[in-house]
């Protein structure tokens, strides 16, 4: 791999910025200063450092974020802050993107990566990847609603959702707490499903996507790399 590509993919800047690092003599390969952008390196074998900091190359990056409300699930937006905007500067340079979308006012589990194959498979209806949400609902959710969700809620004239699992956790002062599991990701789907049974979602948080569960120790807006076990389970969807 070209040295400038390895550095850029590792979050040390754009190709232009990396070339400047090389020109400044900031980069060593196996303890030898290297200024050639096209110099070939073996990411698995060679020791590369920038100003003495070891470069740890990973082909793909996988981050779990506890998405805060008010932030959009996009790589860029002309009006609102995005989930990429709240990453550290080094991570922002890795060409990451959110795997799927959470509505602007929805909280919870969001996978951020640069692995397009995994993203496609996690989002493909053919893979039947469960997504579980915790929701607060204005109105009393009933057994009849559970049956409707199980049979498939019609959310528009030409679309009926796949079977969904609805679990009632409790209700107080006319507000129900539920968990709902779906295998799709239509626009505002959970909200539209409850609107179809004359109820309104007042709070929504994603808890799970496939084998990946939200780390509840993460505060809103915080994120961390996936563990080896989380990644191993998740990448089974690539097959």
Q: What does this entry look like structurally?
A:
With 239 residues, the chain is of the alpha+beta class. It folds into 3 domains: 3-54, Roll (Structural Genomics Hypothetical 15.5 Kd Protein In mrcA-pckA Intergenic Region, Chain A); 62-125 and 212-236, Alpha-Beta Plaits (2-Layer Sandwich), CATH 3.30.70.580; 131-209, Alpha-L RNA-binding motif (Alpha-Beta Plaits). The chain is built from 7 helices and 15 strands. The protein has helices at residues 3-9, 15-23, 89-92, 116-123, 143-151, 189-195, 228-234, and strands spanning 27-29, 32-33, 48-50, 53-54, 62-67, 97-98, 107-113, 131-138, 154-156, 159-160, 165-172, 175-182, 200-209, 212-213, 223-225. Strands 5, 6, 7, 8, 11, 12, 13, 14 and 15 form a 9-stranded mixed sheet that branches. A hairpin with an 8-residue loop joins strand 6 (97-98) and strand 7 (107-113). Helix 1 crosses helix 2 (15-23). It is elongated and about 70 Å long. The mean pLDDT is 92.
Give a quick precis of the structure.
The chain is of the alpha+beta class and 239 residues long. The protein contains 7 helices and 15 strands. A hairpin with a 2-residue loop joins β1 and β2.
């Amino acid at each position: 791999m070209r040295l400038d590509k390895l550095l850029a993919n590792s979050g040390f800047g754009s190709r232009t910025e990396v070339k400047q690092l090389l020109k400044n003599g900031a980069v060593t390969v196996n303890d030898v200063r290297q200024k050639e952008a096209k110099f070939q390196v073996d990411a698995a074998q060679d020791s590369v450092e920038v100003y003495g900091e070891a470069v740890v190359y990973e082909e793909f990056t996988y981050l779990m974020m506890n998405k805060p409300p008010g932030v959009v699930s996009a790589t860029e937006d002309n009006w609102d802050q995005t989930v990429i905007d709240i990453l550290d500067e080094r991570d922002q340079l890795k060409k990451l993107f959110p795997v799927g979308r959470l509505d602007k006012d929805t909280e919870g589990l969001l996978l951020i990566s640069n692995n397009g194959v995994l993203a496609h498979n996690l989002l493909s209806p053919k893979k039947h990847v469960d997504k579980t949400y915790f929701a607060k609902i204005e109105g009393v959710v009933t057994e009849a609603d559970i049956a409707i969700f199980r049979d498939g809620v019609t959310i528009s004239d030409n679309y009926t959702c796949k079977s969904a699992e609805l679990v009632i956790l409790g209700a107080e002062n006319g507000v129900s707490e539920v968990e709902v599991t779906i295998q799709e990701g239509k626009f505002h789907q959970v909200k539209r499903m409850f609107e179809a049974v004359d109820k309104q979602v007042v709070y929504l948080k994603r808890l799970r996507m496939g084998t990946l569960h939200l780390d509840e120790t993460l505060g809103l807006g915080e994120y961390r790399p996936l563990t080896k076990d989380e990644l191993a389970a998740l990448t089974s969807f690539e097959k």
